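lol ok so funny story. i was supposed to be doing the assay writeup but got distracted and ended up predicting the structure for this chain instead. priorities right. anyway since i did it might as well share w the group, maybe its usefull for someone
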Amino acid sequence: MNETESKIENTEVEQILRLLSCSDLRNNLAQTLRNGKKMTLSELSEHVGASSPACVHALRELTKEHVTRQDEKRNYLLTNIGEIVTRKFKEINATITALSQHREFWLDHDLSDIPKHLLDKIGYLADSAIISSTATDLFSVFNAFFILLENSKEIRGISPIFIGDMTTLFIKLVDKDIDPIELIFTPDVLDAMLKTADRKDLRNALEKNLKIFKIEKQPNFAATVTDYFFFIGFFKPDGQFDWSNGLLSYSPDALTWGQELYAYYVEKAEAVIL
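and the output, tada:
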């Protein structure tokens, strides 16, 4: 492909994206036909809640840009280009939503240790909420976090920070048959944990369903993903951890994002054996 052909193709894709973004009806029609769906005009009209003439006009525009086509039975479906672009358009919308609704959170923190492939999927965190501490309770964020842990069935976490009761908490969670509990610590946090832990209780926990890993390079975030929630807190650009704000989500997409983040870092860690 030469430079001229590349520019033409990029222009065509940009034109399709504008076509979808400038009309809710065109976007709804295209999104309705995703994943290989085939629908008649009347079915599409009923599904998107628009009149048949309005749908015909919108579908003509989509067909002109090779987003949709009709088969031999006059059913509408997406072309290969349409399938790809509508999927990408949904990702772009999710990314804009994730970044715009918590703009200050993303601007105020250091994101440099989030893998690039997960930054590309930041839209997975669109359905999230910021939980913040109060002036009278600086650790309310983590108190809420610990309560959430107690209702989990599995826990995987990455922590470059140490909280005094953390060791006792996780040993207690082992006794609640949460399986697995996998934790990645930096060397300093691991040392602090070992100093505060009852070695006998810790060994018993490790013989059950607790797994501890050590990672040499400190990530600039603390994150936990369980079977039903994902939580992440970040360091600020000045190197101080932000104890006052964390991002919490219960959405399946956020859980997937959190699981991929944990998998990325556990590959760089080594198991701890006492």
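The radius of gyration is 24 Å. The longest strand covers residues 221-226.
back to the writeup now i swear
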